[in-house]
Design brief:
There is one protein chain. This protein has helices spanning 3-16, 23-45, 49-58, 61-66, 72-87, 92-104, 114-130, 139-148, 166-171; strands at residues 155-156, 159-160. The chain is globular. It is 67% helix and 2% strand. α1 packs parallel to α3, α3 (49-58) packs across α6 and α7 (114-130) packs across α8 (139-148). The structure holds fe (ii) ion. The site of fe (ii) ion has 5 residues, from α2. Residues 30, 34, 59-60, 123 line the site of fe (ii) ion.
Amino acid sequence: MNRLELVRNEIDVILLNQTNVEQRPLGYIHLYGVSQNCAILALKRGLNVELSAIIGILHDFHTYKFGYVKEHAALGAAEVENILRDLEVFSEKEIEIIKSAISNHSDKENKHDKYSELIKDADVLQNSIYSSVFEIKHKKRLKKVFKNLGIKVKLKNGILAKKNFEYLAKES
Ligand SMILES: [Fe+2]
């Protein structure tokens, strides 16, 4: 089993044990969605795709295990460190990269290392696409991510302009 699969198994146990059945699919969508965004952005930016996808799938670990709290990033980073050590397939350097990216991911207004910026961007991107009818909190960052991907979008009043999201608009 590859390392991404090993980590996904840890997350799947948490998601499957979600007592709130409405929350369960949202967890899969968000964590797997962010993980895929991380992989795409890593390819674009020349970063390690495997590590990036792993950061993505683990970034909200605390939230989906215990519920959302403001400090979920730091708490999740510490919990993830234990899991990664127990798996015995990650180096110290890799654990540090994953830990600091998870720990920094809520601080979207400031700039950190490349992997921290990658997870913040992937997070904002997933939220903007899945929740396109809701207001986007980090408009400036989102605009930069789309530009980085070479995608032209218009952000109108904090939400993505309808013409870019007709497939979602039809369903709502
Ligand atoms: Fe997230």
